[in-house]
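Suppose you are handed only these lines of text.
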Amino acid sequence: MGQPVEVLIIGTGMYVCGRGTDGYGTILPSVMQAYRDGLVSRIVVAGTRESSIKFLNNQVEALRQQLGIDVEVEGYPKSGNDPEAYRKALTQLGPRSCVIVAVPDHLHGPIAREMLEANQPVMLVKPFTPTVKEGQELCQLARAKNLYGVVEFHKRWDLANRKLQEVIEQKRLGIPLYALVEFSQRKRVPQEIFGSWVEQTNVFQYLGVHYVDLLAHIFKAIPQRAMAVGQSAYLNGCGKHTQDSIQAIVEWAIPGSVTPFVSIFLVNWVDPNSSSAMSYQAIKVIGTKGRYESDQKCRGQQLVTDDYGIEDINPYFTQSYSYGTEGRKEYLGYGIESIRTFLDDVWRLLEKTVTLEELEKSRPTFQQALISTAVTEAVGQSLECGGNWIPIKNVSEAMA
Ligand SMILES: NC(=O)c1ccc[n+]([C@@H]2O[C@H](COP(=O)([O-])OP(=O)(O)OC[C@H]3O[C@@H](n4cnc5c(N)ncnc54)[C@H](O)[C@@H]3O)[C@@H](O)[C@H]2O)c1
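From them, the structure of the protein bound to nicotinamide-adenine-dinucleotide can be written out as follows.
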């Protein structure tokens, strides 16, 4: 095995280290585990406040115990508040390094751009960018610099979705006709966890985008037009100016198909905080010869306790499991796997055992992610004009 890689994580929130939850997030456990396995040599994390680095350090300490490793995680800013601490953190990296960007949606484009300009391979959490224009700029920059850029669309790694992919590839459903996606989360996500930036995104861009990418990936489909309507009956009253729920229809062209394919998305982020899981998620796909139904909330594991009530556990996302004999844990699931895949890819690119062209075929690269941005942008435009159909033009050209 060649030299391991250094990793800079930008962001110290829920997805990085579990802020606002009982857990430890997804990015930090995955990267620390990669350190345990010898793939990563150094971990640097940038937030904006000293207090967020203190929280991060507590999470790191707990994970060190769980994983049985003695890793130093360097946090920035070292003191005080500094929204540009990530720039100082960047200067700490050596030549074999990469960056994972996990900041609020509206900062994805500018921060990812800076990282590419600094010649870093980048993994950006979803959504890619709010506009196609910004997304195209990132694609062009990555291409000009011959750098790897991917979006962390982890649903591609969910075994339930990989099985759907196989079923579609085998044409077992016949001609694809339509899909129905439902995805929602507890109201404390927009109210508390994303409270400071929730008005800069919408629930379709936050949740719906996952399944937009998944459908584009599985069906090799190109979106043609989109329309959407939404409701505001709860969050506005709490002082959060964003819609509670959105219903969107997207019409796609599937190469070789005789009919357009239509997907319907029903998303909200006002589920009760007492819901038995953070996410309610389900997908159905209907074709001329069959249907595929996947309940991605109730996976069959239910835990009922005096302390927490009823919990529906998703054993396939990010979960800890007992490991070995010394009270150790390991983290498994499609969240962990998608981040680990990026680190593996960066290492293989450095070792020259894989090429960017090969990865382009199978990973959620910036290029591929432009499709999801074209759809979320069109949905946003439709919401603004009261639900009109918005044509999605020239996605293929934008990707070329
Ligand atoms: N929570 C999830 O399950 C999840 C899953 C996948 C992707 N995402 C995406 O990840 C992103 C972050 O989500 P989150 O859940 O961690 O949100 P969060 O609100 O908990 O955290 C956002 C983090 O960004 C940091 N940040 C803001 N500006 C920064 C800057 N200039 N430099 C460094 N850090 C900065 C904040 O300090 C905070 O730690 C969002 O785009 C979200 O859509 C979240």
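What can we learn from it? The domain at 156-317+370-399 is CATH 3.30.360.10 (Dihydrodipicolinate Reductase; domain 2). The CA atoms of residues 121 and 147 lie 6 Å apart.
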